[in-house]
Amino acid sequence: MKKVFLKDIAKKLNVSKTAVSLVLNNKGDENKISQETQKKIIDYAKKHNYVPNQLARGLSRGKSETIGLIIPNISDSFYSKIAGYVELKAKSLGYTVLFSSSSEDPKKESELIRSMLNRQVEGLIIASTQRNLKEIESLKEDKFPFVLIDRHYPESETNYVIVDNYNGSKTVTEHLLKLGRQKIGFITLKPGLEAIRQRMLGYENALKDFDIEFKKELIKELSPVNYEDEIKLAVSELIKFPNSVDSIVFSTHYLTSVGLRELKRFNVKVPQEVAIVSFDELSAFDLVDPPITSVIQPVKDISNIAVEILINEIEGMKESIDNTRILDSKLEIRKSCGTF
Amino acid sequence: MKKVFLKDIAKKLNVSKTAVSLVLNNKGDENKISQETQKKIIDYAKKHNYVPNQLARGLSRGKSETIGLIIPNISDSFYSKIAGYVELKAKSLGYTVLFSSSSEDPKKESELIRSMLNRQVEGLIIASTQRNLKEIESLKEDKFPFVLIDRHYPESETNYVIVDNYNGSKTVTEHLLKLGRQKIGFITLKPGLEAIRQRMLGYENALKDFDIEFKKELIKELSPVNYEDEIKLAVSELIKFPNSVDSIVFSTHYLTSVGLRELKRFNVKVPQEVAIVSFDELSAFDLVDPPITSVIQPVKDISNIAVEILINEIEGMKESIDNTRILDSKLEIRKSCGTF
DNA sequence: CATCATAACTAAATCGGTTTAGTTATGTGG
DNA sequence: CCACATAACTAAACCGATTTAGTTATGATG
């Protein structure tokens, strides 16, 4: 089964490449190609399974019907869900998605942005490392369509779709406080990320509202590079004297998993001795022992809205929709923080 | 910051496009471009941040340094992990990966294959719906490089990397038998997939080896489209009289999650009343109540080997490595099947 | 009947690279 | 000093589409 090209069709049917191209791009009518000719072309193309070479198409049109999605890590369930929904939504609007993982490395991220631009993507959705302000600003300058998700640059005015990290974190911390917990630890990544900073702030202000003294020792900030090890130390320090926390807030699902594994290894009873809650969840968190109270992020909404904003902008319907969104998260109460 | 093109560089430096192209592709020496000229070009390109347009490059070379990965669903943690490892490995070998999800739809899958070919991918890694034999055969005919992963077409001779589903399933079933379980249910998807068929066969033969009568009623085959609902019925039928199973083998991690959720809703004690085991696991399965005994698939190996085979073939080092692999899975024993 | 509009097309430029098949200038051996 | 090799380049074709700026034939209009 040989590949057919535009010129093959043209030659076989004794028409010009132009005619074939126009017809197959649904521009036959507006260019007054006769119905017979159109039918002839379409039939032939169908019969021979013609599909245009996207590279040639993209090159000559300067377009590609493709958007890029840059995320820190496709293996992380949070981002893989986003990728799934973005792909679905984009496809429904006629776009293909190019994924790539930055591995939380700003340099790689900026390479990816460039590489995607070379591939003529028409827009980008980026869950940024948040250490590429320059690159982002330059996209903005070039008026290149993009939407930040999950993480944004508060110092720069861009499209973004994020969740309300502050309130999500505050709410879940308050939940612990209402249940009578007083010594609440907080395990998080070093706040290079605004999202993480907001989660920390939410935690702090919840304490404040309950007139509980904020203690620096109860906050454990892990370096993003090898937190696997650090978290073990962090957990053990929190549960021991003099900290002896009665509960821990974990700022990502991954930290929660690893942390809980540690708590179990130390034979700490959860939630009796130490209650835990998680910002963001894993699909099995309701099955875990104990089921983990989590702040659930509206993954589907984030994805859909981001794609909508982006394609809206690509297709030039300026300003027609709200292009900065802060979505609410949902507190799913389970047994890991005890009950009323 | 304006984009620079090849011809801009050529014009500015008073050399030909050819020279620039050759030099930037590391073919300066073999084409006897003088060192000065080379340096001049390289310096200018670096200073002005030149990056070649991949579409143009791909179009003219008929290559793209890109491979395609087609999986059923990027949101599924099994496939998202594969995607992550494939991306990593491919990048380390100089290739970019184009992902896409087929949603388990053969028609979509065959569209994706075509669409990827149009994008000039140089090879494909496919976790096929296994209902596209024709498409696969035609790839083979065209001598287009591809590797099947996770699912292969036993009736067709191709490259593939899969796990030993039969033995994995047999082993885990035997494990239940050794623990004295006798009425073992099996919940699976309708075996359109060879992998699933093998898992079922493993289960059956384990029973046979233990002289336990194989009962059709204990096997529940769900339709892949709305198993969410069907599984609830399946679980309830299995645990009730006259089936009253003492254990269940779930054939995918997703079925395990949903199934366990159902068991809990029925207040069935796991593993005391019904032991469960899972083929394939979720990252939190060790934290679940009870921790779930699982057959763990070597996701990283699958990915790495598939990429190696593929790129080996793309780069024409024919036959130098073994191109059909059946990898062993690992039985991770946890508490969901009771203990010795 | 000359003019103009319109229908129905097409030739050729273009996108931004790669690659083939030269060309020119210089040096070397006989 | 001529023939030839070699170094150091370059013009132009090409990849497979899209798109601009025409062209031709026909029919209507005044």
Automatic annotation (TrEMBL), chains A, B:
InterPro entries cross-referenced by the UniProt entry: HTH_LacI, Lambda_DNA-bd_dom_sf, Peripla_BP/Lac1_sug-bd_dom, Peripla_BP_I
Organism per entry: Arenibacter palladensis
Occurrences of domain HTH lacI-type (ranges): 6-61
Pfam families: LacI (PF00356), Peripla_BP_1 (PF00532)
Gene Ontology MF annotations: DNA-binding transcription factor activity; transcription cis-regulatory region binding
The keyword DNA-binding is annotated on this UniProt entry: yes
Statement: the UniProt record of this protein carries the keyword Ligase: no
Keywords per UniProt: DNA-binding, Transcription, Transcription regulation
Name of the featured protein: Transcriptional regulator, LacI family
